[in-house]
Amino acid sequence: MKAGVSTASLFMRENNEDALPLLEGLGVETVEVFLTTFSEYGYPFADILKKRKGNLTVNSIHDLNTGFEPQLFNAHPRVKADAYGWLEKVLQSANALGAPYYTFHGTSRMKRAARSGKNDNIPKMIEGFAELSDFCNAKGVQLCLENVEWSTYNRPGVFTALANEIPNLRGVLDIKQARISEYPYEEYLAEMGARIAYAHVSDCNDMGQMCLPGKGNFDFDTLVKRLQDVGFDGALLVEVYTGDYGEVTELKQSCDHLNELLYKYGCLSKK
Fold it and tell me: Within 10 A of 223 (CB to CB), how many other CB atoms are there?
């Protein structure tokens, strides 16, 4: 395992082309690139990021998911084709930066009935995700479904239904989103199991406010042990909101805290 930072943690503080050299300068080694808008998808912006990332390892690509991801499942062929066009650009960015993973949310569960899952058409969902997974794999990138309170994987059980039929589907464990969903993160972790590709981590203080790992009371020791139990050996990516910390140097301090913990349990990657 290894610690890293998502550039989402620098949203509205630094643009991606400046966030990457900043994080490298701090001594961060692994990142997720959160592409914030359509003009950042694909070339030529991917080339700019490639030149500015230095020696950073880009673990994964994340995009502004609500922009086009829900339309990848649209019944209208023209709408769906346009969405796939944007997806192809995002995957171009992943290829340019050497990122093997794509953090995916999928549909948006904005209505109460959609949140409950009572109207989920599982066969149709499987069909859509299988097509997406094949498309991503053909571009050399793995589709990774993240547990997100307001999106496709908003409760335990969804991943199992999809993954049983889609062998290449991977998962992203998000501690913050599990907290918001009011389902224990352990349920998501157990469900994804060996298919967890990486995790988004954050902490929470006594006031219930999100903060950087190491600044709150979340039990990271137990998290690491549970990840070890399922054979996880990926990245723990710090993903918080920009108002959840003070100086940017705290991001590196948080990574150091996590890496020290990983070293303690003998699972710190040497790569």
Answer: 21
* Spatial contact of 33 and 78, defined as CB atoms under 8 Å apart: no
Handedness of CA 30, 86, 143, 62 (dihedral sign): positive
Say if residue 183 is exposed, middle or buried (CB neighbours under 10 Å; 0-12, 13-18, 19+).
middle
Per-run averaged pLDDT (10 residues), the chain, 271 residues: 98 98 98 98 98 98 95 98 98 98 95 84 97 98 97 97 97 97 97 98 95 98 98 98 97 98 95 66
Q: Which pLDDT score is estimated for 271?
A: 66
Residue 49 CA to residue 47 CA, distance in Å, equals 5
- Nearest partner of 252 among 48, 26, 14, judged by Cα: 26
What is the structure's pLDDT at 153? Answer: 98
Nearest-5° angle of CA 31, CA 199, CA 202? 85
Q: How far is the C-alpha of 185 from the C-alpha of 75, rounded, in Å? A: 33
CA pair distance 147, 207, nearest whole angstrom: 24
Residue-wise burial string across 205-218, b where 16 or more C-beta atoms lie within 10 A, e elsewhere: eeeeebbbbbbbeb
Q: Are 221 and 263 in contact (CB under 8 A)?
A: no
Do residues 132 and 82 make contact, with C-beta atoms less than 8 angstroms apart? no
